[in-house]
Each structure stands twice: as structure tokens, then as C-alpha cells.
Amino acid sequence: METNWEKLRPTLFEAIGTTVYLVGVTFVVAGTLGLILGTALHTTRKGGLLANRPVHLVLNVLVNVVRPIPFIILLAALGPITLEVVGTTIGSEAALFVMIVAATFGIARIVEQNLVTVEPGVLEAARAAGAGPLRIILTLLIPEALGPLILGYTFVVIAIVDISAMAGTVGGGGLGDFALVYGYQQFDWEVTIVATLIIIAGVQGVQFLGNALARKVLRR
Q1: Which positions ≥6 away from 133 have C-beta within 8 Å?
Q2: 168 near 177, Cβ under 8 Å?
Q3: Residue 47: its pLDDT value, please?
Q4: 175-184 — which CB contacts under 8 Å span 24+ positions?
């Protein structure tokens, strides 16, 4: 049976828009929260700028507990919390909330691992010169790790695109849902292939941009 693209085109564009919305908002919100949490993990560790063993232990355990949970299970596990925060457990907003939670803890670990690469002696020199912790973090620690952080965030965007494909399980829409509902379930492989190619093109674009930005920063 020939694919009726005249009928499916508006749905496809809507699915693209939903995916861009889910990925974009998740990246901005989780990227910010993850940067804060990851920086807190790094600075509160032993020998860090704000060394605090109890705080570091709590944050580390929290990240270790949430980060490995498969997204589809996290959707179900966070159902009661999602209902309280969003008011529903279905739809784009419900999926978006869980995506932000999942991405935040994943980004936090990536940020921490990249900040570890900054030479401790540089931070100690700044501290000896009288710079406060916040100033060191904002003007030295994060800028020094900016190149690797950009590459890490590029990987995160691609991971967010991946989990956005599962948003359809709670009626979140997007390209993943479009491919499953109008392609796989209807045995229309053309629809599935088109949706897949659009996702691949988007991911390639993000990867190219991330690599270019990282190279520019690392040349400085």
C-alpha cells in the first residue's frame, strides 16, 4: 500500500515540532541543573574548593541511584511525582518532566568528570591569590573545562533525542511516536525510514556543531 503523505505530512511536521520542543527544553533546563549539580559534586569532594564529605556523599549517591534507571522505568517510577508537579502522567508535559529529571543526573556526572580534568594546581594558585570559590568556579574552573564540556553536552543532546523517542509511551508525541504509530504498527516501512532519516540528520547536525564549537574553544 502506497504511503499517503498528503494526509501524513501535517502529522509529521507536528511530530518534528514536538521532538524539537522536548529536546530543546530538556537540554536548556537539564543542562543548567546538571551543570550546577555536577559542579557541586566536583567542588564538595575531598580536596575540592568547597570540600564537604556529607554533602558530596548525598549528591553522589543520588546521582548513582537515578542515573542508571532506564527511561521507560523512570517514567513509571516518577508517576506520582509527575502527577503532583505537572498535574498529569500523560502527554508532552509529563514526558518532558521525566526527561528533565533523567537528563539532569546524567549531565551532572558528565560535568563532574570533565571538571576533574582541570589541573588542581591552577585552582590552588587562584585560591592563594585570594579569589573566592564562586569566582574561581565561574572564571577558571568551568572555562578551563569548556572544550570537553561542549563535547559532553553534544553527547547529551543526542541521548536526549534518544529518550524523546520513548515519549510516545505516555502520549508525548514526537518522531519516535510517529514512526511507531504510523510506520511500524501500520507495517509502513517508508514512514519509519523517513522518521529515522530525519532523526539521523538532526543528530548529525548537532554533532557537527558541537565538534566545531569544541575545536574553536580548544584552539584558544
Answers
A1: 43, 49, 50, 127
A2: yes
A3: 82
A4: 175/15, 175/16, 175/18, 175/19, 175/199, 176/19, 177/15, 178/11, 178/12, 178/15, 182/8, 182/11
Task: For 182-192, write each residue's pLDDT tens digit.
Answer: 888 888 889 98
Q: Tell whether the model's pLDDT for residue 106 goes beyond 90.
A: yes
For 26, residues 6+ apart whose C-beta sits below 8 A from its C-beta are 96, 99, 100, 103, 160, 164
What are 195's three cell numbers?
522518521
Q: Which pLDDT score is estimated for 66? A: 92
Whose cell is 541511584? That residue is: 65
Q: Record the pTM.
A: 0.90
What size, in residues, is the chain? Answer: 220
Reduce the secondary structure of the chain to three states and give it as a string. CCCCHHHHHHHHHHHHHHHHHHHHHHHHHHHHHHHHHHHHHHHHCCCCCCCCHHHHHHHHHHHHHHCCCCHHHHHHHCHHHHHHHHCCCCCHHHHHHHHHHHHHHHHHHHHHHHHCCCCHHHHHHHHHCCCCHHHHHHHHHHHHCHHHHHHHHHHHHHHHHHHHCCHHHHCCCCHHHHHHHHHHCCCCHHHHHHHHHHHHHHHHHHHHHHHHHHHHHHCC
What does the pLDDT look like over 30-85, one tens digit per residue? 999 999 999 999 999 988 888 899 999 999 999 999 998 988 899 889 999 999 99
